[in-house]
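Hey Z.,

So I finally got round to the zinc ion thing we talked about over coffee. Here's the setup:
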Amino acid sequence: MEQKTGDRKKQNWLLTGAAIAFAALVIVVCLLLRPKTGAADRFIIRYGDGQSVSVPAWETRTIVIRNGEIAEEATGAEEENVIRVENGEAWMEQANCPHKECVKQGKLSAETVQTRPLGTWIVCAPHKVFIEYAGDGQ
Ligand SMILES: [Zn+2]
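And the result:
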């Protein structure tokens, strides 16, 4: 009787140990496979009257928004914002809004969203231009 109970206890310990080892292995594999910038990471640029454009974080691209519309190139005239996406980061490269708060908000990326005061957003309130970081699965 006692012998049997001992065996069962040992078996339970083995099962628990195996489960913990397996869980640890899964976690390690997930961490190793996780790229620095997730493949689905992107920046959503919102402008104008509810329009938006989604840019994959791995792209290198400059987007000009003038008077609430996408423009071919920056002229510095009227209400203009120049947004840059490069190496998984996005930032307001230029803007001619009154206080340039959007330019001062710095770079948006998977790392900086943890510490930025505005989190996943860069906001140009006067021009109603917004950059939002959307991570994997969001
Ligand atoms: Zn601004």
